[in-house]
Amino acid sequence: MNRKNDPSELQTLLSTYNAQKALPKIAEGLKKYERLMERFLRSDISKDGDFQREFNHFYRLRRGEAFRKIYFEYMESKKKERHSFEETLLDLKAKTENGRIEASFASKLVATLDSKQPIWDSIVVRNLRLEVPKASDPDRVKKIVRLYSEIKRQYDDYLSSEEGRKTVLLFNSTYPQNTISDIKKIDFILWQTR
């Protein structure tokens, strides 16, 4: 496994102390995310320029217009028929002109369709001390899929731990009106733990 940490890394990183420090910084992002998800559910996002701008800003989707068109059309087409991270990763690779492996953008698409899926981004990967395979690695897709499974496993293990339950309770007491999944709560805290 391309992992440099011990299984308790997420528990150490997301201690109650660290969560308490991170939570005040989350308010604005939480509002943006909840608005984004409301809009996602009620509009055709392949045509909704406001949703696309908000999504691009929130997730820092900095790709050309051609990529974004394919990305949002694909996302809209999967609202009712969800795909796994691996299927999404491979579909985006096949549909885009450069054929790049976009693990981060695939995970953000999957997590938008199913908020119980974690995000893969540089902050999460760095905080979990995971090694991303090089672009030249012939088994890169397979390794990326395994790495995403490892991220999911660490989130699940953490959320089922006493510390994870305390963190979720702390989040809920800080933001009692929140409507987000426990996975997304962990994403928000991780994004503030830099």
Could you write a compact summary of the structure shown?
The chain has 194 residues and is mainly α. Helices cover 64% and strands 0% of the residues. Helix 3 (27-42) runs antiparallel to helix 4 and helix 6 crosses helix 7.
Show unreliable segments.
1-7
Q: Name the helicity range.
A: 55-70%
How much is the average pLDDT? 88
- Total count of helical runs of at least 4 residues: 11
Number of strands: 0
Intertermini distance = 24 Å
Beta-strand content: under 5%
In total, the number of domains comes to 1
* Structural Rg: 17 Å
Characterize the largest beta sheet: strand count, sense, and whether it forms a barrel.
none
| General shape | globular
Q: What structural class do helix, strand and pairing data support? A: mainly alpha
Compressed to H and E, one letter per element, the order equals HHHHHHHHHHH
Features:
single chain, 194 residues, mainly alpha, 11 helices, 0% strand, globular, disordered N terminus
How would you portray this structure in words?
By secondary structure, this protein is mainly α. The chain has one domain (about 10-190). Helix content is about 65%, strand content about 0%. The chain is globular and about 45 Å long. The two termini are about 25 Å apart.
Layout of strands and helices, then pairs:
Layout: H1 9-13, H2 16-22, H3 27-42, H4 49-59, H5 65-77, H6 85-95, H7 103-113, H8 122-127, H9 140-159, H10 162-174, H11 182-192
Helix pairs in contact: 3-4, 6-7
